Amino acid sequence: MSRTQHDLTGRCRVCDAPISAFMSFGRMPIANGFLAAEEIANEYFFELAPAFCSQCSMFQLIEQPQPDKMFHGQYAFYSSTSRYMQLHFEAFAKAVMADVLPGRADPFVVELGSNDGIMLRHFYERGIRHLGVEPSQNVADVARGRGIRTISAFFNRKLAQDIVAEHGRADVMLAANVMCHIPDLPGVAAGARHLLKPDGVFIFEDPYLGDMIAKTSYDQVYDEHVFIFSATSIARAFAPHGLELVDVAPQITHGGSMRYTLAPKGSRPASARVAEQLAKERAQGLDRLETYQRFKENCEHSRARLMQTLEQLRKQGRRVVGYGATSKSTTVTNYCGITPQHVEFISDTTPIKQGKLSPGAHIPVRPYDEFTRAYPDYALLFAWNHAAEIREKEQAFLAAGGRWIVYVPDVKVVA
Fold first, then answer.
1. Which of 70-79, 213-222, 307-316, 318-327 has the lowest mean pLDDT?
2. Where are the beta strands (DSSP E) in 6-96?
3. Do 333 and 218 contact (CB within 8 A), yes or no?
4. Nearest residue to 153 (alpha-carbon basis) of 191, 100, 198, 204
5. pLDDT at residue 415 above 60?
6. CATH number of 307-414
7. Residue ranges per structural domain of the chain
8. Which of 47, 246, 382, 383 has its CA 20 to 30 A from that of 320?
9. Of 212, 177, 215, which is closest to residue 71 (Cα–Cα)?
10. What is the pLDDT of residue 297?
């Protein structure tokens, strides 16, 4: 049952301080819950409302659906479908091999949310002991089919104990775009501390709060992203569990991410980059509530501009097609009120999504060749974080007179 607008309060998942939502994106379905027409009657909704904890600076959702509603046997996201992400994870894996593993005897690498094995395969191919922890059975099966050792489970202190009992402690724990999905962050921190060797490191990356605020990329807020992290909130969340932030590295993935390196307290010196990043965040106001109230106003302004553009094109009888049936697009379509009257269909290359309807807005999702067969006048770029890769690929669309509608960081029509 969704909470009412007046009851959007709760306790911080990290420090247990009282928190309340600074805005609501309204009634929202499961972001990756693409559905058949006959499933509409039973579609699940919840209130998507973010809060900022003034105690520990954690940005989080007040209400999050149960994990089994979001990650399940039909989970529709496979990392390896993006060429850019394949290259990114290859570089990530190689950096770990070059910076952390040299000189270690029989190193052991554990990855949380290992998806279809896109990153772990680089360790597997070099004969490095590894273990993937991937809750979605269908995705884990793909990894196992490639020879990558993977278990289907949610990571916590108990699982960490089981892994240590069977495999020993880890030299490196990795995670990419998964830590922000896990509501029990203290449980993961305690598990990580138990699993790591005394000189081990935990390296993970996730969408970065500073980028989201600066770009008004509010579509980073959806059911799976129970947290959007900053260096400040990560340092505060892991300190009580004996892990300290020793390095940060900005990434361009997912429209702006941050890679965090944590280590057992006192085991290695912190890079100067950590203090610099914390200072930058104070200057940006990431530790102050008024920054989030301003973000709310920016979201409302963005919504008004996008709907104005789409309404205008609808009245002119122009064809608009969505590009990329992403999880993020669910927040945009439902928050803004985009319907099949505004967007004819969403083009996507993921077979499991094709022939389905988008969550909540029920816009048809169709194969990519329907986009190329008869180009629309405009393409609404839902997969904006892959804009460079997409625009390079879609020269023929532009040559045919097509135009992109983008909404991050500003709403505009571009050639």
1. 70-79
2. 9-11, 18-20, 27-29, 45-47, 50-52, 59-61
3. no
4. 191
5. yes
6. 3.40.50.720
7. 5-62, 79-287, 307-414
8. 47
9. 177
10. 98
Q: Classify burial at 319, counting beta carbons within 10 Å of its beta carbon; exposed 0-12, middle 13-18, buried 19 or more.
A: middle
Q: Do domains 79-287 and 307-414 have the same CATH topology?
A: yes
Enter the tokens of residue 51.
Answer: 């809060």
Q: Are 42 and 73 in contact (CB under 8 A)?
A: no
pLDDT number for residue 395: 97
Beta strands in 208-256 (DSSP E): 227-228, 243-251
Distance, in Å, from the CA atom of 278 to the CA atom of 274, rounded to the nearest integer, reads: 6
End-to-end CA distance of the chain: 44
HSE (CB half, 13 Å, CA atoms) of 128? 26
Residue indicated by tokens 């194969």:
367
pTM of the model: 0.92
Mean pLDDT of 14-18: 97
Average pLDDT over all residues of the chain: 94
Largest Cα separation within the chain, whole Å, is: 67
pLDDT in the model for residue 77: 57
Token duo for residue 144: 């196992």
73 pLDDT higher than 70: no
pLDDT tens digit sequence for 102-122: 999 999 999 999 999 999 999
**C-alpha span between 105 and 199 (Å, rounded):** 13
Distance CA 27, CA 208 (A): 25
For 153-270, list the strands marked E by DSSP: 170-176, 196-207, 227-228, 243-251, 257-264
The pLDDT value given to residue 4: 45
Find the range with the poorest average confidence among 134-143, 230-239, 263-272, 358-367.
Answer: 134-143
Q: Give the span between the Cα atoms of 270 and 253, in whole angstroms.
A: 24
Residue 61: C-alpha distances to residues 51, 64, 158, 171, 263 (Å):
6, 6, 25, 32, 27
Place of tokens 């064809």: 319
Domain 79-287 classified CATH 3.40.50.300?
no
Tell me how far apart the alpha carbons of residues 108 and 197 are, in angstroms, rounded to a whole number.
10
Please, are residues 139 and 78 in contact by the beta-carbon 8 Å criterion?
A: yes
Q: Which pair of tokens denotes residue 123? A: 């360790």
- The secondary element (H helix, E strand) that includes residue 294 is helix 289-315
